[in-house]
Design a protein that fits this description.
The complex is a heterodimer of chains A (481) and B (467). Chain A has 15 helices and 11 strands. Chain A is an alpha/beta fold and 481 residues long. Chain A has a domain of 292 residues: Amidase signature (AS) domain (Amidase signature (AS) enzymes). The longest helix of chain A is centred in the C-terminal third of the chain and has 21 residues. Chain B has 467 residues and is α+β, with helices and mostly antiparallel strands. Chain B folds into 3 domains: 211 residues, no CATH class; 112 residues, no CATH class; 57 residues, Orthogonal Bundle (Arc Repressor Mutant, subunit A). Chain B contains 16 helices and 15 strands. In chain B, the strands form 4 sheets. Chain B has an 8-stranded mixed β-sheet with strand order 5-6-9-1-10-11-12-13. The longest helix of chain B has 20 residues. The chains are: A alpha/beta (481), B alpha+beta (467). At the A-B interface, helix 9 and helix 10 of A face strand 14 of B.
C-alpha cells in the first residue's frame, strides 16, 4: 500500500476502487506502529479506526452517499475535542479529560467521513515551538530525528510528513501550524481570523488563534478548508465565507499579482540558506508574472514582545479554569481549604505554561497594564494599520516562515528569549488576523525551509492560488524515512 | 448627612436561555447540576454564544431608567478564582475604557428625589454554593452549577439615598418597572440581590455585601445606619470596611478576614465581538417596550376618569394592569378598575394566591358588563368573583350555581312588591308625600330577594304601584 499520496489522490483512488478505506487505514496504523516510537507524533491512536473504515467501505459498496473524505485518516492536534476521546493538550493537567462533545471542525469532518487516526503531540497547551514542552515527551523531525519538528503543532506536521496520516489539523496562535510545517516540509495554513470555528479548540490566546490544516499539498489544504470553514453559531467570532470553494480556480496563478517582500522579516540574523531560498522563491514568482518589491512593516520589530504580552494575558485567563474541580487528573480535595487547594491543584502545569501564566498575571495587572498589556494592544493596532496599508498596494506579502533552519532538540529549551525570537516572522499574521501559509520550498543540508505568503483578510482564496503556483515551481527531495 | 448607594443584581428571569448557552434561564425547576452544558460548565474548548435577547432586555432596562445607551457594547473578563465560577473568570461589562456597557449614566425620580444611575451592565451569574456539615471541621462545600451563566443585570446607583425609606421606595419603583418591562419576576427567590454602601455624616464608607432580597436590603441599610450612629454617638471611629449581611440574624457582620484588594485583570472578552446597538435598533427596541407605568397611569386617569389613587395602584402592578388592559372597554373601564382594586386585590394578595387564581380577563369583562346591565348586584358580584378566582368557572355558570342572578322578572318582582306594600301601609302612605321614603320600601324588597332584585326595575315598579 502506497501511503505517500495526497488527500486528493486518496479520494480519487478510493472512488476508483483501487484502494479501500479499510486497507489504507490498516496500512497507516501499521506504519504508525512501526515508526511512531521513534517520531512520537501521536499522544493517542484511535483503536476503532479499522471498524470505522470498514463501515465507510460498506457505505461505498452499497452505493450510499459517502462524505468527501472517503475514510481518509486524519490526525488531530490534541487540543481539539473529539467526543468520548481523551483530549490532553499534552498536559498532565488534563491527563484524564475525556471530551463530552465534538469540536465544530470534528463534527464537520465526521459528516464528511474522515477518520481521526490519532491525537497529535504538541507543546503543552500549544505554548512553545518545538514540542519539547509536551508533558509526554517531544516529537522528532522525520528529516533528522535529532532535530525538533517545530511546534506547537509538531505532532501534526510530523504525522503528515512521515505518512502517518494523509492530513492533519493543527492550531496556530503565533505560528504553531506554519512553523512545524516549515521545519517538516509540509504545507501549513493559518486562515483569516474567524474563517474556521474555534468551538472545541482549547483556548490558549483566543483573540488571535485559528485552527489550520497541515497537508502535503496546497490543494489538499484547499480541500480541507472547503469542509471546515464558515459561520458557526457556536463561535460568535466566525465569519461568513458564503460556502467559498477554495479549490475552484486554484490554478489561476500569480500573473500580475503585486507581492511585497517584508523587509523586517529578512533582517540581520536570518540564516543565509533561508535568505537565498526566499530570494529564489521571489524570482520564481516573478517568473510566473508577479511583481515583487520590498515593503517595510516597522512595527514587526515590536511584534514578538506584543505577542507574548497579549498571549500571556489571555492564557492566564483561559487556563484559569483548570482548577481540577470538575475534570482533570486524579487528586483528592480532602483536607484543603480553597486557596491552598487551588495552589496545589494547579501545580501540574509544566514549566513553560507556568512561566506564561506568571507573566499573564503580571502584565495586565492594575499598575502594570499601562506599561505592558495596553502598550502591546497599541502595537497590535498599529501593526494592523501598517499591514492594512500594505494590502492597499499589494495583493500578497512574502517572507521566510522561520528565519532559521530547524535546530536540534534541547538546543534552545533553556533559553526562552531565543525561542521567542524564532516567532518573529509568524506572529504578525496572528496579531493582525490575516491569512498566512507556509509552503515547503527548499532543503538545505537535509533540513527543510518553508516560504510564507500572507494576504489580506478574507482573501484566503488568492493566497491559496499564489501558494499553489509557488509550490509547482519546485520539486523537493523525499523525506528520508 | 447619610449617604446610601446601591448595586442591584437583577436576574432576567423571563428569558428563555442562559446568557451564553441554550440551557434554561429558569434554573429553579431542575435537579442539582441538571441544567448545565459544556459552555456554562466552562469545559475546555467551549465558547460563549451571546444571547441577543438578553442584550435587548438589558438595553430596555437601561432605557426605562433613562440611561445613556452606547451604540457599541463590549464584554470583559473579570478574573478571580472561586468554586462557583466554572471558568474562574466572569464575563461582565466595564466602562473604564469608554462607555461600553448596556447603560451609562441615567436617573429616576423617587418622589421628589432624583436618584442618579451610574451604569447598568449585563453579566453572568455564577453557580450556587451549598454548605453542608455542622461544624467548621466537617463542613463541606457543594456546588450547584444550574444557575451558572444565567443573565444578570447589575444596576449601580450614585450614593443619592438619604434614608432606608427612600431605598424602599426606589426598590418598589424598580420592582414594578422590571416587572412591567416583562424582563424579570422580582418575587422569585434570589432574583433580586444587592450590595449597599452606607456612610453617615463624619463617617467612612461601609460596604454591605450579600443581601439576598429587596426586603432585607432595606433592613440591612437600616441596621447599618443605626450601628454607625451608635458608634458615632460614643465617639468610636467608623472603620472603612466590607461587611456581610447575615440573613438569619438580620445583622451586618464585619468580613473577618481582611479582604485582599483583588486585582481582577479586566480585559476584553475576545470570544464575543462588539455588539452594535445603533439608533435604528434603539428606536426599534423602544417601540417594542411596554408602556411605562407612569404613562399607563396618566391614560387611566385622563381617558377613563379613574381616580388618581386607583389608577396608581392599578398601573404599577403588572398582574392587575394586564388584566385591566385585556378586559376593559371604554364603557366598562371604571367598573373593571373598581372590581380589581376593591375586590380582586383582597382575594389574591400573595404570590401563591395569584398563581393559584383562575381568573381571566373574560371573567372580569363579563362581570363588569353584568353589573352595568343590572344582571347582578355589586354585592353578589363580590361572591361571584370569589368563586371565579377559586374555580375558574364562567360567570353564567357561577351565577346559576350560587343563584346570584338579579330578579328581573317583572311578574315575580311584582308579587314581592305587592307583599311589601300590604305589609308596610304606613310607609306606603308616607312615600306618597315624601319620595325619600320609597327607598325604605326598595330596601324591604331587597331583603325579601336577598339582594338580588334589580334595583332600577324595583324602583320603577314600586312607584307605579304606589301612585
Amino acid at each position: 500500500m502506497n501511503l505517500k499520496i495526497s488527500a486528493l489522490s486518496y479520494v480519487q483512488e478510493v472512488q476508483n476502487g483501487n484502494i479501500s478505506a479499510e486497507d489504507f487505514t490498516a496500512a497507516t496504523l501499521e506504519h504508525i506502529h512501526n515508526i511512531d516510537e521513534k517520531l512520537h507524533a501521536f499522544l493517542s491512536v484511535n483503536d476503532n479506526a479499522i471498524n470505522q473504515a470498514r463501515d465507510i467501505d460498506k457505505k461505498i459498496k452499497s452505493g450510499k452517499k459517502v462524505g468527501a473524505c472517503f475514510g481518509m485518516p486524519i490526525s488531530i492536534k490534541d487540543n481539539m475535542c473529539i467526543k468520548d476521546s481523551k483530549t490532553t493538550c499534552a498536559s498532565k493537567m488534563l491527563e484524564n479529560f475525556v471530551a463530552p462533545y465534538d469540536a465544530t471542525v470534528i463534527s464537520k469532518l465526521k459528516e464528511q467521513d474522515a477518520i481521526f487516526i490519532g491525537k497529535a503531540n504538541m507543546d503543552e497547551f500549544a505554548m512553545g515551538l518545538t514540542t519539547e514542552f509536551s508533558a509526554y515527551g517531544p516529537s522528532k523531525n522525520p528529516w533528522n530525528v535529532d532535530y525538533t519538528p517545530g511546534g506547537s503543532s509538531g505532532g501534526s506536521a510530523v504525522s503528515v510528513s512521515a505518512f502517518e496520516c494523509v492530513a492533519s489539523l493543527g492550531s496556530d496562535t503565533g505560528g504553531s501550524v506554519r512553523n512545524p510545517a516549515s521545519f517538516c516540509s509540509t504545507v501549513g495554513y493559518k486562515p483569516t481570523y474567524g474563517l474556521i470555528s474555534r468551538y472545541g479548540l482549547i483556548s490558549y490566546a483566543n483573540s488571535i488563534e485559528q485552527i489550520g490544516p497541515v497537508t502535503r499539498t496546497v490543494k489538499d489544504t484547499a480541500f480541507l478548508l472547503n469542509m471546515i470553514t464558515g459561520l458557526d453559531p457556536n463561535d460568535n467570532t466566525t465569519v461568513d465565507n458564503k460556502n467559498e470553494d477554495y479549490l475552484l480556480g486554484i490554478d489561476s496563478g500569480v500573473e500580475g499579482k503585486k507581492i511585497g517582500i517584508i523587509k523586517e522579516m529578512m533582517a540581520e540574523g536570518t540564516d543565509p540558506a533561508v535568505v537565498s531560498a526566499t530570494n529564489d522563491a521571489i524570482s520564481k514568482l516573478e517568473g510566473l508574472g508577479a511583481i515583487c518589491e520590498e515593503v517595510s512593516l516597522d512595527m514587526v520589530k515590536y511584534s514578538v514582545a506584543a505577542y507574548y504580552t497579549i498571549t500571556a494575558t489571555e492564557a492566564g485567563s483561559n487556563l484559569a479554569r483548570y482548577d481540577n474541580l470538575r475534570y482533570g487528573y486524579d487528586f483528592s480535595l480532602e483536607g484543603y481549604e480553597f486557596n491552598s487547594y487551588i495552589q496545589k491543584a494547579r501545580k501540574n502545569f509544566g514549566p513553560e505554561v507556568t512561566r506564561r501564566m506568571i507573566i499573564g498575571g503580571f502584565v495586565p495587572s492594575a499598575g502594570h497594564a499601562g506599561k505592558y498589556f495596553l502598550k502591546a494592544l497599541k502595537v497590535k493596532s498599529k501593526l494592523t494599520k501598517e499591514i492594512n496599508d500594505a494590502f492597499k498596494k499589494y495583493d500578497l506579502l512574502i517572507a521566510p516562515t522561520v528565519p532559521i533552519l530547524p535546530f536540534k532538540l534541547g538546543e534552545k529549551i533553556d533559553d526562552p528569549v531565543a525561542l521567542f525570537l524564532v516567532d518573529i516572522n509568524t506572529v504578525t499574521a496572528n496579531l493582525t488576523g490575516k491569512p498566512a501559509i507556509s509552503v515547503p520550498f527548499a532543503v538545505s543540508n537535509g533540513l527543510p525551509i518553508g516560504i510564507q505568503l500572507l494576504a489580506d483578510s478574507n482573501n484566503d482564496k488568492i493566497l491559496l492560488q499564489a501558494a499553489n503556483a509557488l509550490e509547482q515551481t519546485v520539486k523537493l527531495p523525499e523525506v528520508p524515512i | 448627612m447619610t449617604k446610601i448607594g446601591l448595586e442591584i443584581h437583577c436576574q432576567l428571569t423571563n428569558l428563555e436561555s442562559k446568557l451564553f448557552c441554550s440551557c434554561k434561564a429558569n434554573y429553579r425547576q431542575f435537579e442539582i447540576n441538571e441544567n448545565i452544558c459544556p459552555v456554562c460548565m466552562g469545559l475546555p474548548g467551549s465558547l460563549p454564544r451571546l444571547n441577543q435577547d438578553a442584550v435587548k432586555k438589558a438595553t430596555m432596562i437601561a432605557m426605562a431608567l433613562n440611561c445613556s445607551t452606547p451604540e457599541k457594547i463590549a464584554f470583559f473578563r473579570k478574573n478571580y478564582f472561586y468554586p462557583d465560577l466554572p471558568k474562574n473568570f466572569q464575563i461582565t461589562q466595564l466602562n473604564i475604557y469608554g462607555d461600553t456597557s448596556v447603560g451609562g449614566t441615567g436617573s429616576i425620580m423617587v418622589g421628589d428625589k432624583k436618584i442618579r444611575i451610574t451604569r447598568i451592565q449585563l453579566e453572568e451569574d455564577p453557580g450556587r454554593l451549598i454548605y453542608e456539615g455542622s461544624s467548621s471541621k466537617n463542613q463541606i462545600t457543594l456546588v450547584d452549577y444550574n444557575r451558572a451563566g444565567t443573565p444578570l443585570v447589575e444596576i449601580v446607583t450614585e450614593p443619592d439615598f438619604e434614608s432606608p425609606k427612600q431605598v424602599r421606595e426606589f426598590l418598589n419603583i424598580l420592582s414594578d418597572l422590571l416587572e412591567n418591562l416583562g424582563v424579570s419576576d422580582p418575587s422569585l427567590e434570589g432574583a433580586m440581590r444587592a450590595d449597599a454602601n452606607v456612610s453617615i455624616e463624619g463617617g467612612k464608607k461601609v460596604e454591605i455585601k450579600n443581601i439576598g432580597s429587596f426586603h432585607d436590603l432595606e433592613k440591612a441599610v437600616h441596621f447599618e445606619i443605626t450601628r454607625q450612629e451608635s458608634l458615632h454617638s460614643r465617639a468610636i471611629e467608623i472603620a472603612q470596611e466590607t461587611r456581610h449581611w447575615d440573613d438569619k440574624r438580620k445583622i451586618t457582620i464585619s468580613s473577618r478576614s481582611k479582604e485582599e484588594a483583588l486585582d481582577y485583570r479586566y480585559f476584553l472578552e475576545g470570544d464575543i465581538p462588539w455588539v452594535t446597538i445603533d439608533p435604528t435598533i434603539q428606536e426599534k427596541l423602544k417601540s417594542q417596550m411596554p408602556e411605562s407605568i407612569s404613562s399607563k397611569k396618566e391614560r387611566y386617569v385622563s381617558k377613563y376618569n379613574i381616580p388618581n389613587q386607583v389608577a396608581d395602584v392599578l398601573s404599577s402592578d403588572k398582574f392587575y394592569s394586564d388584566l385591566f388592559e385585556d378586559s376593559h372597554t371604554e364603557s366598562n373601564a371604571k367598573e373593571i378598575a373598581n372590581i380589581i382594586t376593591t375586590d380582586l386585590m383582597g382575594l389574591v394578595d400573595t404570590r401563591e394566591k395569584r398563581e393559584a387564581s383562575k381568573i381571566t380577563s373574560t371573567h372580569l369583562r363579563d362581570l363588569a358588563n353584568a353589573i352595568q346591565a343590572g344582571k347582578i348586584s355589586r354585592n353578589s358580584a363580590k361572591n361571584a368573583l370569589y368563586e371565579i378566582v377559586k374555580t375558574g368557572k364562567d360567570l353564567s355558570q357561577v351565577m346559576s350555581d350560587l343563584d346570584l342572578g338579579n330578579v328581573s322578572d317583572e311578574s315575580e318582582l311584582l308579587t314581592i312588591i305587592k307583599d311589601v306594600i300590604s305589609e308596610e301601609p304606613q310607609a306606603v302612605q308616607q312615600a306618597k308625600s315624601n319620595p325619600q321614603t320609597i327607598n325604605y320600601l326598595v330596601g324591604k324588597v331587597m331583603q325579601k330577594t336577598k339582594g338580588k332584585a334589580d334595583p332600577k326595575l324595583t324602583l320603577d315598579l314600586l312607584k307605579k304601584q304606589i301612585e
